[in-house]
Amino acid sequence: MCSHEEIALAPDGSVPLELLEREIVQLTSSIHAATCRWLELVGEYDAREGWAQWQCRSCAHWVSWQCGIAPGPAREQVRVARRLRELPAIRAAYAQGELSYSKVRALTRVENVEREEDLLELARHATAAQLERLVRAHRRVVAAERVAAGGRPERWLEFEHDDDGCVLLRGRLPAEEAALVMAALDAARDRLAAQDVPAGTPAGRDDGVRGVPAGTPRITVGEARADALVAIGDAFLAGDVGSRTGADRHQVVLHVDTATLQGDAGERCELDDGSPLAADTARRLACDASLVRLLERDGVPLKLGRKTRVISPALRRALNARDRGCRFPGCTSRRFLDAHHIEHWARGGATDLDNLVQLCGHHHRLLHEGRYVIMRHAGGRLTFTRRDGRAIPCCPDRRHGPPAPLQHARRPDACVSLNTGDRLDLGLGVQAMLTFAPIASAQAPGI
Prior knowledge:
By secondary structure, the protein is α+β, with helices and mostly antiparallel strands. A hairpin with a 5-residue loop joins strand 1 and strand 2. Among the domains are: 164 residues, no CATH class; 64 residues, no CATH class; 80 residues, no CATH class. It has 14 helices and 11 strands.
């Protein structure tokens, strides 16, 4: 078990810098070992699907909820935990505090590792920045070879919220798709610029281009592209293509008896083509849908009512303003949400704000399957309870006691890179990595 002497920080800063450096490096090694142990536990918890008993969408959802980690980093840490189970040598070095999380995160992105010890030795002799460059270059070579062999190119788009509430966009597109997006942005930018030029403005004039007083600095190219992106999104949402609002996103015709919706022994619950449907599914769909009442006698329609919407647009806006996403503990879903009646309207529950709650499709389905129940109390407080009677807390439980001691290297500089200061030969490094982790012809594209 590793131990070290804590340094008392004097108010006048009289502690020698050498002692500060020593403890910083030693604690860094301890942090790496503790993080490795944490990732091992997360990997085991994920493999045994312990998160499913709490009705979480995934292990990353549970980690984000219980450990106070943002969803994006939680997903990345679960990915690393899964790969560590496949890399015993790297995991052992990490457990001894010899590798940082930055290095391990990079190493776990290397696919089809055949010579793990050699890959580990490369990581020991490279800085974290050098190793990241090597892994990125290796993945580019692998991706290019896959595309050349007829595979799909790697493509993705990520969103991240900045500290001030703005959103950062980052993505990867094949060259031809990126050219299409850039052409659309340029076209939208040109159209916006043409619309904002005041009448009678001479061509090529540098001031007043956007209708502001002369002498005001023009917006940058980056700002113009941001305006263009917003304009494209606004134009898309203003049209019919791709619009998905409220209950109209589900165009499913369902025939169901009132008794079935009330939870009693009904007779009919089927789709329009006659396919039978579970009563729980029917109640979930009826929570947030357009309804047409049909009066029948002996199977013969007698009266067809008008199409009515259970939840009005105004009520939906109020619900969105209040809940701002799925209300299930720890869930961060904000799109494609359903409005659930806590007391179902078929049983007399009112369609008003006090009886409604927003849930994502996943948790709405689990609720109607009986995996958990929701109760609303005085003041609007909600409680979620599993079917075994255990409460699902809205906040993590902090009553777990101190962590267990760690077993790892006593050497205080275990995490220090063995790099000698030589410049990185990227081509040689990638060539070596291709021998440690060769391209697998039948392997699926990485994410």
